Amino acid sequence: MRSRRGRRRSRYYLWLLLATLILIARTPVAADMARRWLPLVKDGIHDPKSPALRLLQQPGEALSRLPADVAGSQVNWTAALEQGRINPRTNILPETKIRVLDTDILLNLRGGTPIVRFPHRQHTVWLDCGNCHEQLFKSKAGANKFSMQLILQGEQCGVCHGAVAFPLTQCGRCHNTARDKPLPAAAVRGS
Ligand code: HEC
Ligand code: HEC
Ligand code: HEC
Fold this sequence. Notes:
The chain is of the alpha+beta class and 191 residues long.
């Protein structure tokens, strides 16, 4: 059991972390640095001495042509796919079944920040059901207990967001549905 003081302290750190993230996301410096990518010789991933580097396309050349985002990879990959600007292969083996699900789930129904509308379609155009179900999330509305603190620690939505999908500083892309307006009727109510 954690003491009440321990819980209070961890809640304090959560708010401190959130406040810092919001500050970083809003700072004009972050906007100034937008849309600049390190060349391959400086990215710390490729061997700068490798003669093969000349054969590769520079990230800036490829990514600057795609819809912009202000954070993370500076590309809005959802928009890039929806606008047909990229056309990634869905499968390698012909027998792989591609399943796209078009339902939205409303999460954070009881919180103070805007509701989180989780879109299945924008996820299943990239991912398989098995990437999330049943290990990470149970496929039953309201069956999962979400927590922003766990998400910030890289669990739940944070397994991908902040790692391979748009970062957690983009609060409004998840907290995207106003609480004081009629809720979207087509969406399923989660927790
Ligand atoms: C990847 C999606 C995602 C992003 C990005 C995200 N959140 Fe959340 N957030 C959630 C989910 C899901 C919950 C619901 C957790 C629950 O039910 O308590 C939540 C809950 C919360 C809560 C607790 C409930 C409430 O509304 O009072 C706060 C506070 C919060 N988020 C703030 C933020 C802030 C500030 C940011 C940006 C720095 C942010 N979130 C970014 C998904 C996200
Ligand atoms: C990126 C993660 C992710 C992927 C991929 C995903 N889901 Fe889900 N799914 C969720 C979350 C989050 C919920 C909400 C659970 C809750 O409310 O606690 C959910 C809920 C559900 C539900 C219950 C809600 C309802 O509409 O009745 C079903 C059924 C479901 N998913 C099926 C699927 C199927 C089928 C696929 C593949 C085509 C899939 N999911 C892919 C995250 C995912
Ligand atoms: C298995 C990886 C994975 C998990 C887990 C995951 N996401 Fe995503 N999410 C993605 C990817 C990939 C995209 C599309 C690429 C991008 O936008 O970066 C995406 C896109 C989204 C979008 C669409 C944004 C737009 O502009 O249309 C929202 C909203 C979102 N995620 C919220 C959530 C929430 C809330 C959770 C947790 C309940 C969650 N995601 C869990 C990988 C994931």
